[in-house]
Amino acid sequence: EKAGFDHFMMKEIHDQPKAYRDTMGARLDPSGSKVVLDEMNMSEEQIRAIRNVHIIACGTAYHAGLVGKSIIEKLARIPVEVDVASEYRYREPIINKDTLVIVVSQSGETADTLAALREAKRNGAAVLAITNVVGSSVAREADHVIVTWAGPEIAVASTKAYTSQLIAFYLFGLQLAQTLGTQDAGFIANVIAEMKLLPEKVEQILAQADSIKGWAEQVAAHDNLFFIGRGLDYAVALEGSLKLKEISYIHSEAYAAGELKHGTLALIEDDVPVIALGTQEDLLEKTISNIKEVKARGAHVFGVQSEGQTELAKAVDGVFTIPRTLTLLTPALSVIPLQLLSYYASLARGNDVDKPRNLAKSVTVE
Ligand code: F6R
């Protein structure tokens, strides 16, 4: 059932091209110019009534929500807040009937996420669930549902569920843009065309998986490291850091690259590994100057760049190149080398990759 892989996590990392295809599936109009999310059961009138969006989730699903915020704000120009479910419930969020609450949950059974959903409904908000489990509690109680077709995820560390959640957010963002007219038809068709190319680009990344092993072995020799990035790269850095912590037990922290000098730089000393994401072209120059700051203090920097870039490679000690795509779509590719990094680091430390200590796949307690 591991399809020839040693662990479920590696199998699920390799399931991603299929998970992307299945999640996009029939939701892309054959003409290639439109998204079709009728199944979500949200009328044009309901879409036009949305004034603000709250995205609520835990852990990795929360990190998908951070990317979701950028997607919705960029494509539909609707303001979005993102909260961890266990915080949202207790902060007296300002929810009203113009608020769309999006809950993101692989299992659809996470206690805090479900409680936040109920709180949102009590306050009159419409709730959209993005979930991987048809018929889960979250799916049953939400007003609208987008199912991610990632297939069962067995490994505790979430991989294909996260990337399928990203695909769901792209689809939803495009649906909003289409209905609200915030992006023109040519732009939307171009995003769709690029989305269709993502599965084969993931395959290209997976074909180079071995090149991450060396990094992972170096990382596994340390007890402390940093992930840095700006914009969407920062959101992906947070997910990369969580993945590494949960299965390798190595402490790491994800930092917005520009924020380092406000304290964290004090922790950079000789040989501390820094994973620097530099896929956001408009921010690259700034990220590179932050890389120089950590290099000057002795850090050993591994970079992730997009094909066609040359500047990042000159500033780092090792580089992984992902295929080129639209800036907005890069998280669906840049997270893959980080998944592989945590997998190989966990292996190098002799851990139980699929069943990390202290963690459960579905968290049904608050
Ligand atoms: C990390 C991980 C967890 C879950 C979180 C939410 O790899 O799997 O952080 O993402 O417990 O779970 P769901 O999505 O089932 O609500």
UniProtKB/TrEMBL annotation:
Where does the record say this protein resides?
Cytoplasm
EC number(s) from the headed UniProt entry: 2.6.1.16
Main location class: cytoplasm
State the reactions this protein catalyses: D-fructose 6-phosphate + L-glutamine = D-glucosamine 6-phosphate + L-glutamate
Residue numbers annotated as active site: 361
What residues does the SIS domain cover? 43-182, 215-356
Q: What are the record keywords, sorted?
A: Aminotransferase, Cytoplasm, Glutamine amidotransferase, Repeat, Transferase
> Coiled-coil ranges per the record?
none
Q: Which GO terms describe its molecular function?
A: glutamine-fructose-6-phosphate transaminase (isomerizing) activity
Q: Does the keyword ATP-binding apply?
A: no
User: What job does this protein perform?
Assistant: Catalyzes the first step in hexosamine metabolism, converting fructose-6P into glucosamine-6P using glutamine as a nitrogen source.
| Subunit text | Homodimer.
Q: What is this protein called?
A: Glutamine--fructose-6-phosphate aminotransferase [isomerizing]
Q: Which organism is it from?
A: Paenibacillus konkukensis
Supply the source organism's classification. Answer: Bacteria, Bacillati, Bacillota, Bacilli, Bacillales
- Tell me what gene encodes this: glmS_2
